[in-house]
Amino acid sequence: MSEKLEEFDNRIIFAKTLISLATENPKIVVVCNDSVGSSNLGEFRDLFPDRLIDVGIAEQNMVGVAAGLANAGFTPFVCAAAPFLTGRALEQIKADVVYTRTNVKLCGMSPGVSYGELGPTHHSIEDIAWLRALDSLPIVLPADEAQTKEAVTWAANTTGPVFMRIGRFKVPSVSQGQSPAFVPNKAMRIIDGTDITIIATGTLVSRAVAAANQLKSEGISARVINLSTVSPLDTTEILLAAKETKAIITAEESVTRGGVGGAIAEFVVQNHPVAMKLLGTDTFAPTGSVSYLLEHYGLTADSIVASARELLKHGK
Amino acid sequence: MSMATREIADLAREIRLQILHTIKGAGMGHIGGDFSVTDILATLFGAVLKVDPKEPNKADRDRLILSKGHAAVALYSTLALRGFFPVEDLKTFAQPLSKLNGHPNRNKVPGVESNTGPLGHGFPIAVGTAIGAQLAKNGSRSFVIMGDGELQEGSNWEAAMFAGHRKLTNLIAVVDRNGFQQGSPTSKTNELDPLDKKFEAFGWEVCVVDGHNYDALFKAFTDPQTKPRVIIAQTIKGKGVDFMEGKAEWHHKVPSAEQYEQALEQVGKQ
């Protein structure tokens, strides 16, 4: 399995899908913060100039304006770099969108450490922990092109707030042949296994798959779950993982404290405790490219394999 | 006083009476700010807003966003008196599980447009509803009421800049300029003046009016606009009850039994 898989920037399919949805549904509008380029919205603006509302560099106003547009009957997609959307406008997200239950779709572009060398100010590793604390906000992390397309379509057709991460770091397809690729509120079991479960999100899913393949060659049967929806948590699937396998590894491009690992650990410890290892980006990152940083934090297939061996050794 | 003006004055009197009953009954509330904003609400709901209590979510309704959410009791009293929900319900204010929280909730109270409370939130939302109405071409107008101290929040100036840029002629921002924030005068905390020049510089029409003069308010709300308009409503915190007027401690003080009776008597004559 050494052939290099083709990789995709999810922002491309995101924009294409949004354009096709907006063509059918005149209520879909975009609100952004001088982010037409970084959110890949140039074509949308050309096609629907009145329906792209660029507030300039003003994230609090951006989210408030989106809440107002939703009040006026529109379905706004807020498209902004994830760190600024979630950090700068957190109170607007809490009060104007989630507590008021406005029909706003918050699209955090280029999340995690995908801005690499630009550093921790531009990384969005806290977003999951911040937003997961909010009452009843769906948090969706599409892992590839097919999931992005289906998740955006679902978001457009569901009423109420949604937060989704749209990655810029190129990833291979992980849902080939699966239809549907994305099921709302469901964790996607993409490889079955009986010894250990690897629960991964976003960019980490393809690495979890690679780890499972490597473990298989060592005689370890690893289950891989693509947790494309973090909130609400698919507790049925996680309970099965805890009951049917001996240990759980979580892998995410965010802080595990309150993040995906935290969410799963909270559930597992109260319902069916098993050994766990949480992998994430838990510090302000040093300087480095995305690839470098993922390696730095042990978010690689090799590192997941090592964690699996370690957990299973102690678990026996 | 014309018939129309008398009707607004009657509504304002009834709103103030309900505010007194409600705050006295609950033992809590922001009475000073409720009374400063009462005449603004009475003018809007009595003569300006195109809203229907029977159809509070009608697509082309006018939007009124109370950004100073701590004046919830003033808004609740107004909505109840205009038929959005029974006046009787005001007695549940702040009681366990009441729909009438200390700050308004859109999903529980008909006529409330957004869950406000944290300051500096309503203005951007009103910019959004105004843009939405222009996109929908449905003639809906948007109004936001802010406290003056609230203008210290930067988000308001993001909204003001953008509304000026978009020349939103269907948007009116009202500043309830009572001169006080929670504990002290705005001028001592973080000076707002010259407020008119600030808004002019952001591309707004500015109307400075007596915020207790119904005719002046009505004109400011209904004159044709060529830009977004701000109404700097010069108001008196605690307006309508002489011992509350202009006193910072009445930001959220509750009247004693004796003060309550005195206040009812004064307001009842208005």
Largest interface: A-B, 31 and 33 residues
Provide the succession of SSEs of chain B. HHEHHEHEEEHHEHEH
Instruction: Name the strands of the widest sheet of chain A in spatial order.
Output: 3-2-4-5-7-6-12
The CATH architecture designation of chain B is 3-Layer(aba) Sandwich
CATH superfamily of the largest domain in chain A: Thiamin diphosphate (ThDP)-binding fold, Pyr/PP domains
What's the CATH class label of the largest domain in chain A?
Answer: Alpha Beta
Give the strand order, joined by hyphens, for the main sheet of chain B.
Answer: 1-2-3-7-6
CATH topology of the largest domain in chain A: Rossmann fold
**Which CATH class of chain B applies here?**
Alpha Beta
Average pLDDT over all residues of chain A:
96
Question: Which descriptor suits the 3D outline of chain B?
Answer: globular
Low-confidence residue ranges of chain B? none
**Structural class per helix/strand content of chain A?**
alpha/beta
Compose a concise summary of this entry.
The complex is a heterodimer of chains A (316) and B (270). Chain A has 316 residues and is an alpha/beta fold.
